[in-house]
Amino acid sequence: TGILGTKIDIVLAIIRIGIFFNDKIYVKKNVERASTLVESGGDWDRRNRLKAYTGLHYLTTRSLNLAAPLLLDSLSTFTSYELCTYSSLVIYAVLAGSVSLPRVDFKAKVVDAPEIKAIFGADSQDDKLSALGGVVSSGLAAGDESMEVDADASGSTATPMPTAVNLTVLGSEAKEEAAIDFKPLAKLVSSLYT
């Protein structure tokens, strides 16, 4: 008995334990259990977290054709930092998509995906962190420099400046994500497509 959201969180924790002990049958059973709970009234956050959990489960069972769409879908709404880091999820999604997706889907979901382009296109570590935090795809940093903001003499604006949610610290205690060089992976994706 209990609240549905709490039940889903408990089943997701059980899935993490099963993944840790590499018990694929146990994980599969609990992924199905979590799916039925989410379908019976789970909120969007738990639904999106379940995509990441299911995608990672499919990776462990080498079902890359099933894992790739789920992992690529969970990139834009990733909040499952208890499972893996965002950088790790990007690597998993790109590799699974590179191997399993047809060429047209590979171009649309991997090569031209804004979340992946933001990380691969970033040259410095600050650019990568701002891409992870959503700065690249929102507000003035997204190339909206022509957007004018009315400011009075004191420098304050009539309209609040757009802010982005920093996904690198959401749901965690301000842990820094380890620096990862995405250049080899970007080169692989480019080479596969061209």
From TrEMBL:
GO cellular component: proteasome complex
Key words, A-Z: Proteasome
Taxonomy, superkingdom: Eukaryota
Ranges of residues in domain 26S proteasome regulatory subunit Rpn7 N-terminal: 3-109
Residue ranges the record marks as coiled coil: none
Pfam families named among the record's database cross-references: RPN7 (PF10602)
InterPro entries, per the entry: Rpn7/CSN1 (IPR019585), Rpn7_N (IPR045135)
Name of the protein in its database record: Proteasome regulatory particle subunit
Organism: Cryomyces antarcticus
